[in-house]
């Protein structure tokens, strides 16, 4: 059983790790933060093709597609269908930063959907991908992030994060 002092020590370690990993250095810049995290897309959210920033990353959602299967013959099959975000991610910071698919989410019909790491592995078979990639300053990667959603649901909004500790930035996926 953790004492209050032990709990504070664990919390201090977590904060220290997040700061050294770049997550504690979040500072809003033009296009980041939207005051609508987690909710339905607002009319004022940037859309597909518009670069947005969160922390050390500049994200561009190039398109969204839907498919039942990713990764070829030995790939991954969706429970419903996969919403596939086609992304470009640039490190605009001064330090290397890891892009983690588990920090990214989609929203539709009031529900929140996490990325499917197993499908991301199958869909991103190139080393220059957006799946759990360490991106050095000034470098850009291209790839897809995959989200398993019910077949009758289409993604309304992506919330993209430079780390699990950042505020994130919303992108409307409505056309």
Write up what this structure looks like.
With 175 residues, the protein is mostly beta strands. The chain has one domain: Immunoglobulin-like, CATH 2.60.40. 14% of the residues lie in helices and 37% in strands. It is built from 2 helices and 10 strands. The chain has helices spanning 4-20, 117-123; strands at residues 52-54, 57-70, 76-91, 97-99, 105-108, 111-114, 133-135, 140-149, 157-160, 169-172. A 4-stranded antiparallel beta sheet has the order 1-2-3-8, covered by helices on one side. The protein has a 4-stranded antiparallel beta sheet with strand order 6-5-9-10, with no helix packed on it. Strand 2 (57-70) and strand 3 form a beta hairpin. The protein is globular and about 40 Å long. Mean pLDDT is 80; it is low at 1-38.
